[in-house]
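Most newcomers find our protein records easier to grasp once they have seen one. Each record describes a single protein and holds just a pair of labelled lines. A learned vocabulary of local backbone shapes supplies the integers on the structure line. Nothing more is needed to start thinking about how sequence determines fold. The record below serves as our worked example for the rest of this section.
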Amino acid sequence: MAAAKPSAFTSVGTVVVPLVALVVLGFTWGRSLPGPMVALVALCLAGAVLAAVHHAEVVAHKVGEPFGSLVLAVAVTLIEVALIVTLMADGGPKASSLARDTVFAAVMITCNGIVGLVLLVGAWRNGVAAFNTDGTVAALSTVATLATLSLVLPTFTHGVSGPEFTTAQLAFAAVVSIGLYLLFVAMQTIRHREYFLPVTRDGEVLDEDDHAHPPTTRETLISLALLLASLIAVVGNSKGVSPTIESGVEAAGLPHSVVGVVIALLVLLPETLAAFRSARNDRVQISLNLAHGSAIASIGLTIPAIAVASIWMDGPLHLGLGATHMVLLALTMVVSALTVVPGRATLLQGGVHLVVFASFVFLAISP
């Protein structure tokens, strides 16, 4: 991932904006906000997203790939998990399906929305978008396994009435989810790191980024701290605007699950922008690392977290998908497999993924 170019925003704004966003978050957390304050929170949210992307690029340029992609994916997901648990704790009966809706939305956004976008950008610039088949196939198989075990099986188990796991089944799903996630991270960063590095159209692996000198350790640590501050501001301010989103959804007569989709879109904005910029810099593999890594982390970290949180939370925990969403998940996995196996994609593959993503959004609005 190339280092960010110096600008007025990157030199001043990326330091000031996260701090301002955190101050605004502190004053608005847990309060009912009038229209002007909602607009201010939304402005801080947008600024924090841009700051997060910049600082993620700085950290990534220092630690190299695929560690850089992992930093942003894990940081976003950990804070996203905290947001889900918080909303479930005070969300009432409507929160029973919040984890499922948010995780499934994250899978659709990353595996179709982000992947489709970066393939379009990469293929538009070079005719084809090239990436490392070994790493991408491994990541996709991990996403498919985690999604099936955590989001599909609860619909078909018989221990509890409804799309739920029993306590033992939920504990098993949590253990295998975190175990598979840790195994994937070990393969990505230690055992087979070369599988997740960017490649040229001729298949040559690019191990170093020669576009700029890496930042100093001090600069990297500052950017890491500001990255975490930015992500906390993104997720916290997303929660701040969520009541307004919920009101708008209810006023429009839309399903409550749309709220989870909108919040997932907001939370994943930093990764979307980072993936877009990597694809624009001919680093499609880095973009795919971000997309698939975020999907894996979203499931692999969320399921164990809600399994623990369910100990003290009342009410059902609906994890199983309905028929429509299972069809979309199956279509996503089939299309993704056909896309990644050749190691090269054209504009057509990018367009197919975006059509699947648009279908998900449309069916969320009009089920």
